[in-house]
Design a protein that fits this description.
The structure is a homodimer. By secondary structure, chain A is mainly alpha-helical. The first copy, chain A, has one domain: AhpD-like (Up-down Bundle). Chain A has 10 helices and no strands. In chain A, helix 4 (about 60-75) crosses helix 5 (about 80-85). The interface between A and B is large, with 52 and 52 residues.
Chain lengths: ~190, ~190
Amino acid sequence: MPHINLKNDLPGIRSAMAYSPKTAAPMGVLAEILLRSNKGLAPAERELIGMYVSYLNDCFYCHHSHGEIACIYLDGDRELVEQVRKDYNKAPIPDKLKSLLAIAAKVQQGGKFVTAEDVERARENGATDMDIHDAVLIAAAFCMFNRYVDGLATTAPTDMSSYPLRAKQVAENGYGSHIYTARQPA
Amino acid sequence: MPHINLKNDLPGIRSAMAYSPKTAAPMGVLAEILLRSNKGLAPAERELIGMYVSYLNDCFYCHHSHGEIACIYLDGDRELVEQVRKDYNKAPIPDKLKSLLAIAAKVQQGGKFVTAEDVERARENGATDMDIHDAVLIAAAFCMFNRYVDGLATTAPTDMSSYPLRAKQVAENGYGSHIYTARQPA
């Protein structure tokens, strides 16, 4: 049961965002830019980073939600998503993404855990400055999203068939910035 | 030295935000709403929560920046800010704020650390559902801001006289949402 009366029956972060639409607006815009940009990292890579950080933060709702969205971008390859979740170093993904996941895992622990060596390794594997920036900020943003979801004890569906359905909506329509950017904070 | 070439000489989060204005826009709006709203928690209380979480995350730039902004709202009472930073339980602040700082400290560790007892105690001390929501989200947001700042190894001024000067600008003009909300993400 949620810690406060969120006044709706939505799951996970959707419940908290519906309770507080003013703060939801910029959070939706941030998710849209960070996770659906096609510049540099692909949306599938962005979602895998978000999924992995959510998994490290033990956020059930977020790591399943974003795992399913990644799965759609990967043409349904749920096995690959599972491999990244459990041991990305052995997953058949590019070394660049592996080194960005390593940076994301350091950010999950705390910003200062990221070392010059981590960044140098990512660069050697082909990451640009913007790729590194985006990996750091995606990881940092999920440290916010995950804490928002679990800090309020929002409910996560246990019916796992709901996650692919919601993922399809997000993959098709995005994180709602088309609504949110039209609003101004009061 | 920053991990990537941020292409500017600004300190802390301002450097990262200038490097990536598209993501800076919603982050600025979120900070503006969370930290400067007068509904429920006062701006001074909001800044103290942000300062304290930044201190727990060992983010030098953020805890000094937001400590100085809190100080302005507290009519220059830097001693009180220091007491909250070091041992808020002994600081001369209301029990409501103490119990919200306790929740924020749990969120800093991870969302699931917040217990029903923590929330019940805040309620007994007069916190509303929205106060509890805001404390959780402010703490969660600083877990993002702090990781963004330190995950990129942005520079923090060691000249401590710069923090009150910048704090005065923020207290007077806000976090820049008046600029940011006019922009749409591309």
